[in-house]
Give the backbone structure.
Amino acid sequence: MRAMDLRTRVTVLSESHDQDGPPGTRMLPGDPVGITRVRYPGHGSTRLMRIMQTNACSLSCGYCPTFCGGNVRRTYLAPEEVARVFMDAHRKGLADGLFLTSGVPGRGDRMTDRMLAAVELLRRREGFRGYVHLKLLPGAQAAQVEEAARLVSRISVNLESATDGYVRALSREKDLSGDLLPKLRQAGQLLLDRRREQRPLPWAQAGTTTQFVVGAAGERDQEILGVVARLERERLLHHAHFSAFQPVVGTPMENAPPTPPVRELRLYQAEHLLRQYGFGVDELAFGADGNLPLDHDPKTAWALAHPEYFPLEVMQAPRELLVRVPGIGPRTADTLVGNRRRTILRNVADLQRLGVDVARAGFYLALRGRRIATAPAAHQLRLFAHGQHMVQAPFRTPVPPCAYR
């Protein structure tokens, strides 16, 4: 077989689909090197080159097209080639940062060494001080985690699921409690200690992330969010990603039922409530199956389950309750509290001017003793407008849907 040139190898290793990434990402059309625009919360965006150093893999992950028995073109980039390809895109103004991941051919620590070597070239030889996100592989050693914490902006370790049993159902080689979770905790603690001791690096550090493949092993949302909440409460995890399982042709799980994408959305919304709104996992409204309801976002589900709190009098309610109203976020709650110290909020127009989504919030609010709306907003039918609950054909992709989380 004819050897692939560098450009072809880069294309193979960076191929993706628009849906392969967390909310707020999209592939830039016509670009051969996997440049993705990622939006920041609120405003702004950056361009990341997302690339696998190799798609060769010895693992048997049943959901992944690059699993050890997958029928895909295999190739590899040397550390020097990773550095060269990224810096070329960076100097041309195409990429602001790098997201480096990899398959696991053989021992994970050996491939991790090659990934660290690529980042070392970027930092030491090329002088690149921008964003680098490194995904640590199963089998990476403690010393490699320490080296990664010195070199990169963000570290991720994919936990994949919530318990050892679920993870073994997805991949017989992966070990949650003996490998993946301790590694994520170590990385989180190293970055936390550096912040506490005020030992900044020349590049900004952005904490740790993880990812869960949702629905493939029969796990419950309550279990997933329990793991996430513990790690975030200990400040060892910045945030989590969730990937709704979609069967891939040619994988061991190609005939397994797909997970509705709306379940992925609900997990993102619930994780945001845990991280930004002060909710606890035990406060979220789960069904009898341990999963979040799909017909309401988690905040609305909580509000509907707790009518004893509502309606809130806008001029008197404390901030910690205002942020629990559907249609009011932390910034809007702060704005409301600040404005009512200076003026009386008299009508719906005043609330809308301050950023309140009155269509969603009206049922839960009162102005001068009068409830703004007599019924909650209609069910969120827009979530189903694009067939998000329809059974989908097996998904075809040259790289795993979880590769860039």
